[in-house]
Each structure stands twice: as C-alpha cells, then as structure tokens.
Write a sequence for this structure.
C-alpha cells in the first residue's frame, strides 16, 4: 500500500520531538529557579485537544525516561476515563512501566488532586492546569497581571478575598485557593481542593504545573514554603467533613467523595482510589504531615 | 524667609508631557503666544511644558484653566497615572529626598501612591473599582499599606465613611448603586485612608448638581482643615478655586501663564488670559 | 521708633488687556509710615484709591513699584517683593484683612465663621467657640443667629460677623475696610470700643472710613487720598 511507504509508522520516544522537549525542559528549569513564576512555553500540538490535559502531558513527556514508573490520577482516581486514556498514551509512546501505587511511581500526573499518601524526594508531581493565572478573576488583561506579578502588586487579590468574606462570611474558594510561593509569587495551585493546599508546603517532591491551552509552566521546588492567602483574623481552613468517616474504611483523615446510591442513600468514601485500596487491604499508607490533618480525629 | 521656604513638600521643575515625535523646537513653537499646543512642524502635541512650582505642607494649590490646557495632565503625571516626557519632581519625605520621583521603580512609585498621596478623580470609575463594595475599595488602600486584619480594615473603613458622611450601613454596598455625590465621598474616603500628606483633586465636583457640589466642597474644606493635608485642586471652575485654594496656577495651552495668591489672581489678574477668565465668571 | 509699616514710593496701575490695554492709575507715589499701636484712618472719595492701597498692603493687588516695609516678628519684610508663601504665612500669623463685605464660605454657621481664625491657629474647638460667643455677644448679635448662615443675614448683622472675625485673634496689623458702615449708632460705638481695646493689646490698625463719628473717635491720624495721591 502506498500509505505504508509514505508515512512514518514509528513515533519517537515520548512522542514530542527532541528539540521541543529540550525547550520544555529549559522552561521547567527556569520555573524551578523562580518558584511560582509562570514561564511561557511553546505548547506543541498533541493528539488530544488543548484543555484536556495537554500541559500536564507536555511536562510528563519532556521529563520521562525509560526507567520511570508512571502513575496518573484524575480527581484522585486512577480509573477515570481521562486518566486511563492518558496512561495508555504515555505507555504506548514510551513503553515505561505504569502503576497505581503512589509510593512506587516516580512521576505522578494529576488532575485536581494531590495524593493522600506522602510524596518523597524521588518523585515528581505533574499538574494539569486549566487556568494558570491566579489574578485572572480580578484583572482580565494579561499585560496587567504580568506587571502585577512583577511588582508583587497583589492588593486586588486580597480585596477579592475580603469581598468574599464580607458577602458570604467566609472565603468561598473551594478549589484552586491562591497561595504565595516562597514569600513572593501568588500562584494558582490548579483546582485542587483546599484539603491539599497544606500538602504543597515544604513538600519533598518536585511539583510541576503545565497549562497547555494558556501556554504556561510553573513549579514548586522541593522544600519550598507555600502559604495560602489568609488574613490575620480570617484564616484559611480545609474542608470540614464534620467527623463523618469513610463508609468503607471508617477513616476520617482523608478527602471524601459523596456517593449517591440508587435507593437515594448518601455515602462518603475516600476520594484517593489508591489510598482507599491500601486502607481496605490494611496496608496503612503513610500520610502527609500537616497541622490541619493533625487536628482531625484518628481513624476509627 | 527662614521659616518655610526650604520646607516644601513637593517641588516640580520643568515637568513636560509631549505626545508624538517632537522636534527640537516643538516647545518653542507652541504655547499661549501661538495660542496652540500643536507643534506646526511635527504635529506633536505639547500637553504641558516647563511646569515649575513648589507645594508646601498643608497648602492648597489650585490649577485653573480651560479644557485641554494641560491641568489634569500635571496631576496625572504627579500621581504616576501618566508617564512624564521630562522634568524633575522632588518629594521632601524619606526615603525620596534628593531623588527625581519620576525616575523611581514602579514599586517605589506605588509605595509613594499608597503612603504619601491620594487622588480623587472627576469620574468615580477611575478611582473606584465598581466590582468591589465601597468597603472593599477602601480596604484596597489599607491592604496596600500592609493592613491584613479584616476587623481593623472594617473598623477603619467605617470611620472613614463616617468622616466623609457616607451612611455607614452602606459599607458593603457596591458604589454602582450610589449617587454621584456619594461616589465622590467614597473616593475621598479611599484617598485619605492612609493619611497621606498630599491629595490630588481632579475636577471632583464637575458633573455634580449644585447642592451636591456644595456639600462635597464643604467636606473637602473641612477635611483639609482637620487633617492639614496639602492639596492640588484642578478645576476649570473659579468658584471652586476661590473656595478651596491659597495659591493658584493659571494654565493656557500647556503652560503656566500666571501664578500667585488666589485672591490676587481673582482680583488683580495680570495676564490677558487670566483677566478674560476672571471676567467670564457668571 | 521704627515704624511698623513704611510705604515708600508705592505705585499701582491696572492694565486692562480686555480694553485694548487701557491703563488705570490707582496709586501714584504713595509715601507714609505707621507707628506701632497707631490707628490710621484712610479717607477720600470712592475711587480715590483707599481700597487699592489696603489691598496692595495685603498683597491682593500686586504693586507696580515701591516698597511696603513691614516689621514682622521675623524681621523687616517688603510686602511688595515677598514670596507668596511668606505672605500666606504672615496672613495666618500677623496681618489680618477685614473687607467691607463679608466674604465667607457658604453653609458655615456664624459662630464657626467667627471661631475659625482661632481654630486655624490650633486653639481647641471648645475654647474657640467660647471666645466666639463672647465676641458676638459683645457686638449684640442675637443668639438665635449664631447657628445661622451669615450669607442670609442683613447688612448690619454681616458687618458684625465680619468685625468679630477680624478681632477675635488680635493681629499685629489689622487692615479694616468700613468697619462701622451699615451699623446703628449704638453698635457703632461698641465696634469702636472693641477696636480701641485691640489697640491696647498692641495691634496696629489701618482703617478706611467715610464716617466722621468713627474717624473722630477711633483714629489717631488721617491720610487723605485723591485720585491715588496723598493730600495732606
């Protein structure tokens, strides 16, 4: 057949061409050098549409090596469609080993969650970011927001938090709560729940953020201070599950999902699927250490 | 005289703003003598040029002139809303003594705006963020000055609203739902939130109806006396100038044509243009 | 003794640019001096230059030439050549001008208008109000008017507010234009007495008046002007 002769049937390792990978790696190094700073990058075309995790995929494919062990979660689950498809894609393009085990993975790509299990120094956490600009809600012009970051002019961001408190009695940011990284840049942590924010602080792992549609990369290097924005008298707090335990494990110190059964009954279950499996198998995974979690009651 | 001639708060020398590509002689070929601020050779517009004056602490200086005379341009450059084409502006406060504040970094400029200056614009939309509540607008200034306590911010905002005679229960309302006079009061609250030694007022009563105008002017005068803040009052309205200011600069075609004590400007104007202006008072 | 005010070769003319540069001579070679504690009466017909002279001293008018030497607390100052800020400082501290017509900020109560010079000096509101009430009472202004706006008052009432404001804080030099015009004879006497009391406190007064009674009872010396020239 003529097509077989004309077209390359073999993709290169990790899909992206080497020059572009190097470009992404250079930008990642810059991002790590300036914690929380958004670095523009090329955002090459991928076989999936922008806005479907291309940013995270760019980062993963640019840094992955044949010996890496890859895990990917979507909203805490290894089994959701987005996670499965991207896992298959990365596996096909690299041939690397994939895993569901948080502890075993060297690269973990995620959408909207950080794993409950603590990360270590050998791990890289890769986020798919829909909106990298934390100031977008208060300033719609990109040239202005870049200037605001450049000059650490964050009063408007603070006023928007003040306004939320005044209108609702609390800061109503469920996901993507803005954080200050290394005492300098305000950063969008991607839409992870407030529950996960304290786990970014002083983390042993490297956290890399990729926003494919917006063409921005940024990073939190290991052992970096990450603080949620809070007033002296209006504090940041994590989601309150009011002491309700996971209905399968009875565990209280994890982020819970609401499940509705066909009979209309409501159940709470641990959102992080690998963590849940480990608890069910009585493996007792080690969790992140933070003051918010420490305050919660221990597992039943 | 010894008592205060060196104690100026703000000193402006040769402040100039030109739009377009001026030639060497653009400034020489424009101004009141030519009755134009458009350079005949290059077409560049000399919005204002060779502006010199000093402002003393607690003093109220008026800038008067017709539309397009460059009076607003001056305060916009001094408040860093607009970049100057040239000139030297000194601010006699640590740590800016001996520096041309026009050449400072943006961060330093913002520090000056937050701590040492306040601005009240003609259009409240320029000075207020209409998506924030009036309290939020005041909070912005307080936050910029390093106040991160919601309780304190709200207490201070309430005091400021009380001082500017805005009903305190409207603290959490959007300024878009306020009358024009009340919007100006919120702007004034915001401008004085950090007790700056210098306040710019750019046509603040233009567009308000007469009785509201009068009340806003009363408020400004009372605040000036109470806080002892220096003010630069830009207005085309000589009665505003007469009521508020000690000294006045008269502008025409981007130049100062006359400066003096306000009562002298109004009663013994020297420049033909000032005489025309004064004789035009209704 | 050195005069507190010495006027040397003072000239003032107005160039009316709107009237094709027409020049109006207001004062021609005016020379005189005023000793400390003196009360000078400026007399002359309307348009003879009395008010112009006074406004030149106060610097509401810019003089064309000559000198106006004033012995301030900080030395001799030429009011013709002094900087605007020096003049503003003197107006706050040493020289007061009381015009023929009350020109006050609208919508401020009479009592506040009178108390203002003291408030500007930093006297407490309580003390300033007390002093203002005292002064207004002495001038026989009804108490019901104290909280009213002077703009709405009759000529005589306005005049008393004006005088009260001028004398509440005794200045070193008081320039006062027609202090007793539009007053009834009794109030006229009160005003004259108050100005004499001011003199006792050490103020020097330059006063314009057409009123023979006032001139006879108040001033030490008269200076008569005709067409901008002093006639003795």
């Amino acid at each position: 057949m003529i097509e077989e002769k004309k077209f390359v049937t073999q993709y290169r390792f990790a899909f992206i061409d080497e020059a572009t990978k190097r470009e992404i790696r250079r930008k990642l190094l810059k991002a790590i050098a300036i914690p929380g700073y958004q670095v523009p990058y090329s955002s090459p075309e991928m076989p999936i549409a922008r806005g479907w995790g291309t940013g995270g995929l760019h980062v993963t494919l640019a840094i992955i090596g044949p010996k890496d062990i890859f895990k990917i979660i979507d909203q805490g689950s290894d089994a959701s469609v987005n996670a499965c498809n991207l896992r298959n894609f990365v596996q096909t393009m690299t041939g690397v080993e994939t895993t569901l085990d948080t502890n075993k993975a060297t690269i973990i790509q995620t959408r909207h969650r950080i794993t409950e299990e603590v990360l270590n120094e050998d791990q890289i956490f890769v986020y798919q970011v829909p909106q990298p600009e934390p100031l977008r809600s208060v300033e719609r012009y990109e040239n202005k927001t870049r200037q605001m970051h450049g000059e650490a002019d964050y009063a408007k961001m603070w006023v928007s938090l003040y306004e939320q408190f005044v209108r609702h009695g609390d800061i109503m940011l469920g996901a993507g709560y803005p954080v200050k990284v290394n005492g300098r840049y305000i950063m969008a942590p991607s839409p992870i729940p407030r529950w996960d924010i304290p786990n970014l602080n002083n983390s042993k792992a490297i956290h890399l953020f990729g926003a494919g549609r917006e063409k921005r990369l940024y990073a939190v290097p290991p052992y970096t201070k990450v603080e949620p924005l809070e007033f002296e008298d209006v504090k940041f707090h994590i989601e309150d599950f009011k002491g309700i335990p996971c209905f399968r494990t009875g565990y209280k110190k994890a982020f819970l999902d609401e499940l509705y059964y066909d009979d209309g009954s409501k159940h709470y279950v641990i959102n992080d699927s690998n963590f849940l499996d480990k608890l069910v198998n009585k493996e007792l995974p080690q969790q992140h250490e933070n003051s918010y979690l420490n305050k919660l009651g221990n597992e039943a | 005289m010894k008592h205060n001639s060196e104690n100026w708060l703000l000193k402006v020398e040769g402040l100039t703003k030109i739009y377009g590509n001026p030639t060497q002689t653009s400034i020489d070929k424009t101004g009141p003598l030519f009755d134009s601020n458009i350079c005949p050779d290059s077409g560049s517009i000399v919005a204002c040029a060779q502006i010199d004056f000093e402002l003393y602490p607690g003093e109220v200086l008026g800038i008067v002139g017709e539309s397009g005379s460059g009076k607003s341009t001056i305060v916009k450059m001094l408040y860093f809303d607009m970049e100057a084409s040239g000139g030297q502006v000194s601010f006699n406060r640590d740590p800016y003594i001996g520096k041309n504040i026009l050449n400072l970094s943006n961060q330093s400029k913002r520090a000056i705006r937050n701590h040492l200056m306040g601005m009240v614009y003609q259009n409240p939309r320029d000075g207020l963020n209409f998506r924030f509540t009036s309290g939020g607008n005041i909070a912005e200034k307080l936050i910029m000055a390093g106040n991160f306590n919601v309780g304190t911010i709200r207490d201070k905002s309430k005091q400021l609203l009380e001082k500017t005679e805005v009903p305190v229960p409207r603290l959490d309302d959007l300024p878009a739902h306020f009358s024009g006079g009340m919007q100006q009061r919120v702007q004034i609250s915001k401008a004085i939130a950090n007790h700056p030694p210098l306040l710019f007022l750019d046509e603040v009563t233009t567009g308000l109806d007469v009785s509201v105008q009068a009340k806003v002017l009363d408020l400004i005068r009372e605040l000036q006396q109470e806080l002892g803040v220096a003010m630069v009052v830009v207005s085309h309205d000589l009665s505003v100038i007469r009521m508020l200011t000690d000294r006045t600069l008269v502008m025409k075609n981007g130049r100062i044509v006359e400066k003096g004590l306000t009562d002298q400007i109004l009663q013994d104007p020297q420049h033909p243009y000032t005489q025309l202006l004064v004789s035009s008072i209704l | 003794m050195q005069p507190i005010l010495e006027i040397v070769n003072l000239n003032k003319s107005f160039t009316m640019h709107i009237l094709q540069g027409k020049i109006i001579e207001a004062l021609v070679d005016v020379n005189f001096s005023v000793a400390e504690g003196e009360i000078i009466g400026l007399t002359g017909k309307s348009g003879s230059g009395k008010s112009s002279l006074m406004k030149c001293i106060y610097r509401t008018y810019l003089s064309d030439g000559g000198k106006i030497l004033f012995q301030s607390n900080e030395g001799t100052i030429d009011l013709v050549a002094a900087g605007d800020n020096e003049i503003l400082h003197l107006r706050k501290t040493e020289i007061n001008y009381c015009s023929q017509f009350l020109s006050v900020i609208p919508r401020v109560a009479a009592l506040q208008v009178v108390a203002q010079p003291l408030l500007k000096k930093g006297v407490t509101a309580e003390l300033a109000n007390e002093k203002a009430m005292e002064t207004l009472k002495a001038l026989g202004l009804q108490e019901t008017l104290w909280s009213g706006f002077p703009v709405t008052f009759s000529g005589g009432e306005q005049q008393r507010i004006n005088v009260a404001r001028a004398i509440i804080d005794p200045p070193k030099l008081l320039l006062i234009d027609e202090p007793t015009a539009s007053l009834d004879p009794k109030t006229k006497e009160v005003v004259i007495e108050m100005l004499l009391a001011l003199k006792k406190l050490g103020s020097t007064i330059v006063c314009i008046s057409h009123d023979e009674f006032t001139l006879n009872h108040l001033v030490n010396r008269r200076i008569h002007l005709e067409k901008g020239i002093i006639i003795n």
Summary: The longest strand of chain A covers residues 69-74. Chains A and C do not touch (no CB pair under 8 Å). Chain A has a mean pLDDT of 92.
